[in-house]
């Protein structure tokens, strides 16, 4: 199997009916970087910057962040990297940060909420990213955006850092794309406003599914109770893809849903043409996609979502479709 996947590495990821699907990697530490070459991935679709903060003994200084981001961009070369700003809080605790007691940490003071309330932290990270990407392309996205003004406020901080660096004579990135994670259900109803501002979006299906079903992703009693490959989740995702196409903006998905072949099949059927996966998922997902008739999968998916029969399992229908092909 491994050898079989390795042989696929340099093959373009194109479905049987000619649809190109970009497979990117989820990463977060230096040790992840060799996977880019090993898998032949199109880039890094999600760089989880909080990992550096989680393994450190104290807040990493701007210079340390800068060195990591530069190493990541160097390793990626011409391939794009999407950096996600700090997603701490909730279950991602920093040992050196004062713990805030919260009854519902997943719904609490985390990610962009914490970043906007502690702008020094977010600005230091933005400065490190802007400097690391000097003269190259920078893609930055904000986690757990729930309201449009959070996106605007984060972008304003970024503008402030740009002004500062410009004034001090630094070479800026030659291009900056600013995006948002779609992982809080409230954003599903503000997609027009979001796409009017964001250069791209990336769906965080781990959190989005947790919040759509109100089922803690880390609690074994409920985590598997609801299937992500189900009508409500898939309708939400289809709507995001349609909006992205209407605004002509890139859309990708970086949650675990894309890391299983059946999940990736569902996503391509919904219209996703870029996914970000765990490195070990690239081989299995790619070998499935090379055999897929994406057009037929989309027709089946639309039929399942538009003529919903509660007794029919979308997962089983997709699995049967994959087995027939
Ligand atoms: C997600 O929520 O799907 C996601 C990619 O982010 P994380 O798993 O880091 O919360
Ligand atoms: Mg998330």
Rounded radius of gyration (Å): 20 Å
**CA(first)-CA(last) distance:** 20 Å
**Bound molecule kinds, no repeats:** phosphoenolpyruvate, magnesium ion
Shape type: globular
Uncertain ranges = none
- Strand/helix succession: HEHEHHEHHEHEHEHHEHEHHH
**What would you call the structural class?**
alpha/beta
Main beta sheet: 8 strands, parallel
Helix content: 40-55%
Number of strands: 8
**Beta-sheet strand percentage?**
5-15%
Strand order of the largest sheet: 7-6-5-4-3-2-1-8
Overview of this protein structure:
- This protein has 325 residues and is an alpha/beta fold.
- The protein has 14 helices and eight strands.
- The chain is globular.
- Phosphoenolpyruvate binds next to strand 2 and helix 9.
- It comes from Variibacter gotjawalensis.
- This is phosphoenolpyruvate--protein phosphotransferase.
- Its main location: cytoplasm.
Brief sketch in words of this structure:
Belongs to the PEP-utilizing enzyme family. The chain is of the alpha/beta class and 325 residues long. It has helices at residues 2-8, 34-39, 50-55, 62-76, 111-117, 119-132, 148-167, 191-197, 205-212, 231-246, 261-270, 282-291, 294-306, 314-324; strands spanning 22-27, 44-48, 81-84, 137-142, 175-182, 200-203, 251-253, 274-277.
Helix-strand layout with pairing:
Blueprint: H1 2-8, E1 22-27, H2 34-39, E2 44-48, H3 50-55, H4 62-76, E3 81-84, H5 111-117, H6 119-132, E4 137-142, H7 148-167, E5 175-182, H8 191-197, E6 200-203, H9 205-212, H10 231-246, E7 251-253, H11 261-270, E8 274-277, H12 282-291, H13 294-306, H14 314-324
Parallel strand pairs: 1-2, 1-8, 2-3, 3-4, 4-5, 5-6, 6-7
Helix pairs in contact: 1-12, 4-6, 5-6, 6-7, 11-12, 11-13
The structure holds phosphoenolpyruvate and magnesium ion.
């Amino acid at each position: 199997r491994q050898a079989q996947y390795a042989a696929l590495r340099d093959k373009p990821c194109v479905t049987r009916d000619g649809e190109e699907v970009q497979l990117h990697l989820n990463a977060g530490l230096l040790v992840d970087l060799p996977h880019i070459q090993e898998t032949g991935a199109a880039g890094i679709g999600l760089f989880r910057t909080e990992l550096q903060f989680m393994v450190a003994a104290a807040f990493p200084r701007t210079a340390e962040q800068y060195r990591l981001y530069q190493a990541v961009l160097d390793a990626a070369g011409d391939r794009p990297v999407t950096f996600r700003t700090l997603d701490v809080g909730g279950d991602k605790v920093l040992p050196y940060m004062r713990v805030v007691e919260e009854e519902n940490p997943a719904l609490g003071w985390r990610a962009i909420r914490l970043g906007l309330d502690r702008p020094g932290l977010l600005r230091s990270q933005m400065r490190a990213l802007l400097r690391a990407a000097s003269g190259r392309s920078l893609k930055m996205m904000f986690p757990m955006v729930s309201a449009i003004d959070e996106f605007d406020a984060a972008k304003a901080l970024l503008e402030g850092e740009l002004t500062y660096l410009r004034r001090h004579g630094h070479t800026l990135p030659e291009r900056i794309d600013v995006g948002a994670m779609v992982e809080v259900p409230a954003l599903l109803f503000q997609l027009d406003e979001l796409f009017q501002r964001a250069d791209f979006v990336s769906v965080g299906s781990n959190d989005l599914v947790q919040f759509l079903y109100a089922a803690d992703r880390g609690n074994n009693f409920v985590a598997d109770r609801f299937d992500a490959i189900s009508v409500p989740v898939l309708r939400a995702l289809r709507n995001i893809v349609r909006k992205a196409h209407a605004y002509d903006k890139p859309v990708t998905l970086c949650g675990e849903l894309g890391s299983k072949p059946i999940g990736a099949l569902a996503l391509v059927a919904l219209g996703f043409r870029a996914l970000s996966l765990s490195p070990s998922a690239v081989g299995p997902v790619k070998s499935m996609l090379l055999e897929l008739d994406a057009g037929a999968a989309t027709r089946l998916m639309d039929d399942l979502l538009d003529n919903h029969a509660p007794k029919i399992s979308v997962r089983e229908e997709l699995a049967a479709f994959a087995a027939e092909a």
